[in-house]
Structure formats: structure tokens, C-alpha cells
Amino acid sequence: MRTGCSIRKRGRTITSDKAGGRGGARSLWRLIRERYLPHWKWFALGTACAAITSVAAASYGYLLKLVVEGLEDLAGPETTGVPAYLWWLVGIIGAAAAIRSLSLYGMTLANNTGVQRAIVDIQADQFDSLTDGDFARLSADRTGGFVSRFINDVNALREAGLRLANNLTKGVLTVIGVLITMLIMDWKLTLVLLVIYPIAFAPVIALGNSVRKRSKKAQNQIGEVTSLLSESFQSARVVKAYGLEDYQKARARKGFVERSRLFLKVLTDKAAVDPILEITGGLALVGILGLTAWRIAEGDTSLGNFVGVIGAVAVAAPELRALGTLNAVAQEGGAAADRVFEILDADPAIKDRDDAIALTAPKGGLEFRDVHFVYPDGSIALKGLNFSANPGETVALVGPSGSGKSTIFNLLLRLYDPLSGSVCVDGNDIRGFTGASLRRATALVAQEALLFDDTIAANIALGRMGASRDEIKQAAKAANAHDFILSLPGGYDAMAGEMGRNLSGGQRQRIALARAILRNAPILMLDEATSALDAESEAKVQAALNAFSKDRTTLVIAHRLSTVRSADRIVVIEDGKAVEEGTHLELMSAAGAYKRLVELQLS
Ligand SMILES: Nc1ncnc2c1ncn2[C@@H]1O[C@H](COP(=O)(O)OP(=O)(O)OP(=O)(O)O)[C@@H](O)[C@H]1O
């Protein structure tokens, strides 16, 4: 049996998302290792500044003790004026404050620079992974979901990175430095404090876990709200026309209420952290005051030591508080890192095989052999499709809505792979070609002519990057677009607007056609490409297309059967299969599915 197209090798099976179920802590650690460490120079500078800040802060308590002892001497009976060393001490305290503030400034700047650079890389890599990855992933996930990942997850990563870089070194070093000075001043009092403070951390760690779970849920819900908003605003015309304002308002309100409920839940846990630490701090102070009064009376310590230790605690307390909330911030960062790696790690199911070759000098012969295809959501689209198109031939695909016509284009572009069977170009399974060379050989004009918010000329030039202005104009003329483009303010340099909204549907279609014509590919796919044109424009564009498609293989999908009449061959698709094929005249005389379609349309 003639196979017609050889399957070079079966494509690799779909690999699942590796990131599923990974712990946030592991993801956060990986984020630090892979994303923040490459910018280590900035963090090293930030850490050096943090160390200076900490030393200056830790010295406060001890300097205070010396000053108080000096003041005690001053208050004594044999005083003869302020001794020079006391002036020096006061000066040193001022210098420590100045050094601390300068190094704090340096730390913030250096760490922010490091984090921002890492964030730019993360965002760009996320975008690259989504853009290069499977079409199925992008089309299955609502746009809002990914938009939210870009905005909210990145905020959580930035916050976690900054807090870890700023508070961790400064907090830990300050606390260690303060502890040492406290131990030197009064070790007994210090030991009492060491017993009381850790008690504050147990509930804080427990809260951190709860924050993490809730924050993940809240982030997912932000995605839902984002897609609801963009959907509402984009469909404003339908909403107004059908009087759906109340329906939309109710949906939006429900989303906002849910958002605020989840936000409050996260906030409730976060809000409990500070009061818990505050209570413990207060209890510690009461204990210290009682104990110290007793010990001074016993002659076991001095007023200088007491004030020094209080000063040291005052310096360490905000750092400890920051360290206490750091866990919750890190947990949120971990949850965000989980989601970021979910995107970055996803292994595309559709990718070039190791032995893929470039499709060079394609002739444009096409063949679908017993192709079965099911969309990822389970919709069965093709059920053993067989048809072919010879190089240079124009084949029209007709059939009822949902019969699988657009799916044929999706498979030909290799946006998806068939479940079984094969799609071939020039006798070879397309899975053996590199994706880029396959797509270079094809030009698609879809029903929704998608334009970008750039100039008209730039939008046409997307068909072939680097095309000259003359080539762009030629393509526009062939698509019957040149005249209307010249009438736009700015002509070829007029802006198309977001999604091309400055143009009418028919104008957008003609720009999209010009783009495809400029591409000059041997395989042309027209999916309702002239459906938005009026009869006169369609006739003109059709004539241009007929001339243009002369030497290239053209697949045409059109509901208006008048458009497909002149095709070399018409293939009727029904329920995912080709049920009939032939010229218009042959099919009319066969009195089968095609004739029924024609009669249905005429009636
Ligand atoms: N992205 C998708 N995800 C899931 N199912 C899909 C997707 N696109 C199409 N389908 C389903 O696959 C089947 C074939 O759809 P297809 O778009 O190929 O039909 P069609 O013949 O081009 O229809 P129409 O003439 O209305 O454009 C339909 O049942 C449709 O619901």
C-alpha cells in the first residue's frame, strides 16, 4: 500500500509539568540559587552595608552604658565639670548614627538593584517560555491567569527577595552583635531575655504556613478577576447591545467580594504577627524592670548596665519583628516561585525532534492520512481524515460548522500533533521538520484578522520581517488595501490601534491578507479570509488572490460557497472526515453532501 508520506520517527510523548506539588521552600531556595545569585555582586555590596549597619547598631547599647556610667560619676559629690571622655562618647554615638544611616542607604540601593535585575530576567524568561511553549497551554488558560502571574507573582518575588536581602543579614547580624554586647554588660539579664523571646516565634511560624496556603488561593483568584475584567471591557459592545450591564456588574461584584474575603484572610494571619511579638516584648520589659530593681538593690548590677541592655533591646526589637514577619513573606515568595517555575519548567509537547530537518525549497504538496485528533479538553475534532492537495492546487474545505475545518489548519501549522495518522508536506510527516521552517513555508489568514498596536506598514511587514516599503505597498495593492491605507491620516504610518481597533473588520482582513501575500509562502491557508468584505471588495480581493495563489498550494475555508466555486477541488468535511471531493460541477452532479450545502445556502 502506498503510504504517500513517510513517518520519520514518532514524536516524543507529552511530558507533564514537572513543577507540580513542589514545596514553596524548595522553590524559593531554587529561585535564590538560579535567579538571585547570578547578581551576587549587588547582594554582596548590600550585605557589606548591612554588616556595617549592624555593627553600628550593636554598639549603641554599650555606648549608652558608658555614657550612663559617666553621668553617674558626674552626679557624684566630687564632680569638677564634664570630663573629655564623655564628650568623646557623645560624639561617637553621633558618628555611629551617621554611619548607620549611610550604610542603610547603600544596602537598600544595592539590594534593590540586584532584585530588580533578577526580576527582569524572570519576567522575560516567563514570557519566552509562554511564547515558545505549546499553543494548547496558551489557548486553554484564560489570558487573565497569565497576566496575573506576571503582575502578582512577580510582586511577591520582589518583596521576598528584598526582605530576605535587606532584613536577613541586617537582622541576624544586629541581633548577634546586640547579644554579644548584652552578654558583656549583664549576662544574667541576657539569659532571662533569651528564654522569653523564642516563645514569640512558635506562633509566628505556624501563622506563616497558613499565610502561604491562603496566599496561593488568593493569587489564583486574582487571575479570575483579571480575566473577568478584560473579558467585560472587551465585550462592552455586546454588553451594551444586549443590556447585560446588571449581569456583568453582578459577576464583577462577586469576584471583588471573593477577592476581598481571601485578602482579609491572608491579612488576618499577617496582622496577628506584630501583636504577638508586641505582647512578648511587653512581658519581657516588665520582667526586666522587676529583676533589675532587685539586683541593683543587691549590688549585682549597675544602672549603666540596665540602661545599656534596654538600649540594646530597643535596637534589636524592630529587627526581631522584621525577622518574625520574614517567614510569612518568604512563604508567599515561595508560593509565587512555585508558580513561576511551573511556567518555566513546562516541557512543550510540540517541539523540534533532535533529528528534525529544515523544510527546504518546499513544493507544497499536502496530505492528511487517516488523521485522528482530540483537543486537550476532550473535544473530538478529526475522526480519520484523508485528503491531499497537489503542489499549486487550490483546495476548498467546506462543511458544517464544527466539522473540523479550522482544526486542519491547526494541525498543518503543527500547533497540535495528531492523535494518530500523519500530516505530510511533500511526502514527509511534518513532525520530522523543524517548526520554524514549516511555518516559513505557510501563510495563514484567519477570520479574526489580528493586528498589533503598531503602524499599518509594520503590521503588514510582520509577514516577512525586513521587507522594504515598496514590497509592503505591492502586497497592500494585491490585497486591495492600498487605497484605503492612503486615505488614513498618516497613511502607511497610521497606527492600527490595540488589536487593530482603529480599522473596520474588512480593512483589518485586507491588512492580514497583505501580510500573507508579503510572506510569499508556497502554502497559503485562508480561513474565512474574505468573510468581512463587502461583495465588491471581495470580488476584487478574490481576483487578486486567484492570481497570487496560482503557483502555490492554497487551502480555502469559506462558508460562502460562491467563494469556493472556482477551486480546483472541493473537499467536503463532515464530522471530522472527508465525505466527498471533486470540482464544483462534479459535486453538483453527484447530488451528495455538497449539493445539499449549496441548496441550503441558496434557500
Ligand atoms: N481550541 C479548541 N479547544 C477545544 N475544542 C475545540 C477547539 N477548537 C475547536 N474545537 C472543537 O473541535 C471541533 C472542530 O472544530 P473546528 O473549529 O475545526 O470546526 P470548523 O469546521 O472550523 O467550524 P467553523 O466552520 O464553525 O469554524 C468542534 O467540535 C469544536 O468544538
Fold and architecture overview:
With 603 residues, this protein is of the alpha/beta class. The chain folds into 3 domains: 35-344, ABC transporter transmembrane region fold (Up-down Bundle), CATH 1.20.1560; 364-441 and 523-603, Rossmann fold (3-Layer(aba) Sandwich), CATH 3.40.50; 447-520, P-loop containing nucleotide triphosphate hydrolases (Rossmann fold, 3-Layer(aba) Sandwich), CATH 3.40.50.300. It has 18 helices and 10 strands. Strands 6-7-8-3-9-10 form a 6-stranded mixed sheet, sandwiched between helices. The chain has a 4-stranded antiparallel sheet with strand order 2-1-4-5, covered by helices on one side. A hairpin with a 2-residue loop joins strand 4 and strand 5 (428-429). The relative contact order is 0.10. The structure holds adenosine-5'-triphosphate.
